[in-house]
Design brief:
- This protein is 39% helix and 13% strand.
- It is an alpha/beta fold and 351 residues long.
- It has a single domain (3-13, 60-350), classed as Divalent-metal-dependent TIM barrel enzymes (TIM Barrel), CATH 3.20.20.
- Helix 8 (192-205) packs across helix 9.
- The longest helix is centred in the middle third of the chain and has 18 residues, at 154-171.
- It is globular, with a radius of gyration of 19 Å.
- Residues 1, 131, 183, 185, 217, 253 line the site of zinc ion.
């Protein structure tokens, strides 16, 4: 997530579906000619954005693993309804401010209603993830103590308590057909080895139920951030107690991978290599979420700045590698969510 997200928040702070639909073709920033082409493709595929009948009818036209980060509505149940009205299959939300320790609490009736909704056949939305706050640094605390040292402090306790709460909350979306979990930026620390060990130790302190999933997200590499390539993520993973490995997954963010210099995802060959390497290092089943972002910064610049799909350094010239990614993630049922703006959903469904 980055600055672009705040624009998504603004666009979607207004909960008027009619307005959103009118906005879809006009605010994308994509050249008009391309919009017309996309609209034509959309018409050809008989896309209907107000899905009211069974998902089965639409599965031959839709990629059934895609969606977007959405602004939460008043209740969890309303958020699922919202995703469903937009015809999305996977969503991500913030349970509270991304810049605050405090999380949003929902009543049990609402949690139950929301989780039952995703189990209904007519509900498109099958994957529900939350993004944990950026404040959480599982390597070091704001007082510059490594978290696993004995110098426990209030920020350490808040992180453990709030992460455990959110892991339990999102576990309600783990179903036979879909899934849910919490996405974490692992943390930062000047000494990479010690920082990575500290992150693993912090994860060992969390409370997991059998369905809780914590997804370690690859980062762009700014400053002392850790988990900036597949190797570092694997070191964090390996440092976690083995009996918790079933509760851990990985989230790949296209803009972060590109900016970190790991893979030049504008090239299809590099996209192919990224998935091959992931499969060798983790096994594909550990790839539980893809964040779809174009990059506002050039390759290997280590900055985390998202761009709308088709307007950045990755896909500004060609969408070929994006088509490959979309086909691949659909083939293997890997949920893929936009962090740019929900408008881009039209584009990725049409590709
Ligand atoms: Zn993120």
């Amino acid at each position: 997530m980055s600055t672009v997200t705040s624009q998504v928040e603004i666009i979607f702070s207004d909960d008027e579906d009619e307005k959103e639909e009118k906005k879809l073709p006009n605010s994308s920033g994509i050249p008009l000619k391309r919009i017309n082409e996309i609209n034509q493709e959309v018409n050809n595929k008989q896309i209907n954005h107000q899905l009211e009948s069974s998902t089965k009818k639409h599965q031959s036209y839709f990629r059934t693993n895609l969606g977007s980060h959405l602004t939460t509505q008043s209740t969890l149940s309303q958020t699922i309804d919202y995703a469903n009205r937009l015809g999305m299959y996977a969503i991500q939300i913030f349970n509270g401010s991304p810049m605050a320790y405090q999380r949003k609490y929902y009543d049990q009736k609402d949690i139950l209603e929301a989780s039952q909704k995703v189990n209904q056949r007519k509900c498109t939305c099958q994957y529900v993830f939350s993004h944990l706050p950026y404040l959480y640094n599982c390597a070091g605390s704001i007082k510059n103590h490594l978290l696993w040292s004995n110098q426990k402090n209030s920020s350490w306790e808040q992180i453990i308590k709030n992460m455990s709460y959110e892991l339990e909350l999102m576990s309600h979306f783990q179903t036979d057909q879909g899934g849910g979990g919490c996405v974490l930026h692992p943390g930062s620390w000047p000494d990479r080895k010690k920082g990575i060990e500290s992150i693993s130790q912090t994860i060992n302190q969390l409370t997991f139920n059998p369905k809780s999933m914590l997804l370690l997200e690859i980062c762009a590499g700014k400053g002392n951030t850790l988990g900036v390539n597949l190797g570092e993520l694997k070191q964090i993973y390996d440092g976690v107690d083995r009996d918790l490995h079933q509760n851990l997954g990985i989230c790949l963010d296209t803009a972060h991978i590109y900016a970190s210099g790991c893979y030049d995802l504008s090239q299809t060959s590099q996209m192919v290599k990224m998935f091959e390497d992931f499969d060798k290092i983790f096994g594909l089943k550990k790839l539980q979420l893809v964040h779809l972002n174009d990059s506002n910064v050039a390759y290997n610049t280590k900055d985390d700045r998202h761009a709308y799909i088709g307007t950045g350094h990755i896909w500004g010239k060609s969408l070929n590698s994006l088509s490959y990614l979309l086909d691949y993630t659909q083939k293997f049922g890997i949920p893929t969510v936009l962090e740019t703006r929900p408008d881009d959903y039209l584009i990725i469904q049409a590709l």
